[in-house]
Design goal:
Strand content of chain A: 5-15%
Radius of gyration of chain A: 21 Å
Largest interface: A-B, 72 and 71 residues
Number of helices of chain A: 10
Structural class of chain A: alpha/beta
Largest sheet of chain A: 6 strands, parallel
Oligomer: homodimer
Distance between the termini of chain A: 31 Å
Shape of chain A: globular
Strand order of the largest sheet of chain A: 7-4-3-8-9-10
Chain lengths: 241, 241
DNA sequence: TCGTGTGAAAACATTCACAGCG
DNA sequence: CGCTGTGAATGTTTTCACACGA
């Protein structure tokens, strides 16, 4: 069946010669794979769990072990991985280091991603210093702000640049990911300008819905929304999962 | 067949079949009905959008307007609200202020939530100063840390307390929500102790899976995971939604 | 007319259960 | 054996399409 599986993980690779095109729904341009978003989301969780397992000397892990640790089912774990190929070993399980490699390749974190941060307030400064990013291959190499008071200051080893000079700051940097940590009122404008400057992925901390062309990918982190989910859960004593 | 929903009592005011709806909950207390998690998640987004609409003088909004602004479908918007009752007005739409009130009641943000923050590093300090929390009814009233160097310092108007005295710090505070902003290695222990001290909702910024009794509700904010989702999206030029 | 509320249909996601392999 | 990979079954969420109300 799912004939696109084997090679799909490297679908962005221009070479892939003999992959048979999807049967009925070839859209020619984007969206040739139909990997459920929920699967990709879980992939990150698997990776995190595997990375915490490996230093402990664990060499292989079964779908049921992984499932138990994450609170999911073993079948789910196997199905998730099966979307991308067959990297399990019957009777053994999955080899941690191999699986980590596969997932990182799929998520494209087997490479370094230079990142631009816009907004060096409290949150922005915390993000520059956040170790968790570099561990997964994301390196903030530019920190920008609009406030002349802030521009030029040192933040976590970076000199804050001027957002007004965004285009020249980004020139030749190969930056495609940006973090928006500015007040809501400025977020839409900042995001538009980032996209115009070649950024195609935006991590948005401003609590507004950004309106951008479909070519731009946005992930929102709205902390108040998360707390709302919590207060709902707490009041409606509902099992979480 | 969704005739077991708690609010059905309201809907059946007319043509009640000879079978009594098997119901217990009224709309004013927490509804015991199975509300999909995805619906609750969207509720927060509706609220945010409505709150940005109202100051502009918008009095009513239709499901299709709301849907367009959020990138969803009108049917979805109506279905989502229908889970909780009928607060739309045919031919008119939804009255913003009323809808805001309903959603806040459902999410339980029509009340103030005192919150304890554990971990006053870069991120923790940024969170104390974050205006977005208070706007939605969440007020960090205790900031704790384990580091004696930090305990006693002022952070955003709060004096950092000692995590070691967690229980006495929380005594009588009515705090049921906690934010964990400590290093991964300490997160599990901190979370357990919070739960033991009566916290039932935890916003966890540490990139590990917390293992807690089912009575505890955890929401993870893993920023590296979010960036991974972004790199995946950027590489597999996939429309976001 | 416009716009809600809602069954029914379609799409999507998860779990089951088992063949097959190291 | 133990464990993967995967059709088939089941469960859940979204979309469609239309009756009905203001």
């Amino acid at each position: 069946m799912n004939c696109e599986f084997g090679h799909t993980a490297i679908k962005f690779d221009r070479i892939t010669p003999d992959v048979q095109p999807p049967l009925e729904q070839s859209k020619t341009s984007g969206s040739r794979t139909r990997i459920p978003k929920s699967v990709v989301r879980r992939l990150s969780a698997y990776l995190r769990e595997l990375q915490s397992l490996e230093p402990q000397g664990t060499e292989t892990v079964s779908s049921s072990q992984l499932a138990r640790r994450l609170g999911w089912t073993d079948a789910q774990v196997r199905k998730d991985f099966a979307f991308f190929g067959q990297f399990g070993h019957p009777g053994v399980g999955y080899r941690c280091s191999q699986l980590i490699g596969e997932i990182r390749r799929i998520l494209a974190t087997d490479q370094q991603w230079p990142v631009v941060l816009v907004g060096c307030g409290n949150l922005g400064q915390a993000l520059v210093g956040y170790r968790g990013f570099a561990n997964q291959g994301f390196v903030i190499i530019k920190a920008l702000d609009i406030d002349p008071e802030v521009v030029g200051q040192q933040v976590g080893g970076l000199t804050v640049g001027s957002f007004e000079r965004l285009e020249s700051e980004l020139a030749g940097s190969g930056i495609h990911i940006g973090i928006v940590a500015v007040p809501s009122a400025s977020a839409q404008g900042v995001a538009e300008r980032l996209v115009a400057a070649g950024v195609t992925g935006i991590l948005n901390f401003a609590p507004i819905k950004l309106n951008l062309p479909p070519s731009a990918h946005v992930i929102d982190v709205d902390l108040a929304m998360e707390l709302e989910q919590l207060s709902y859960a707490v009041v409606n004593e509902r099992r979480n999962d």
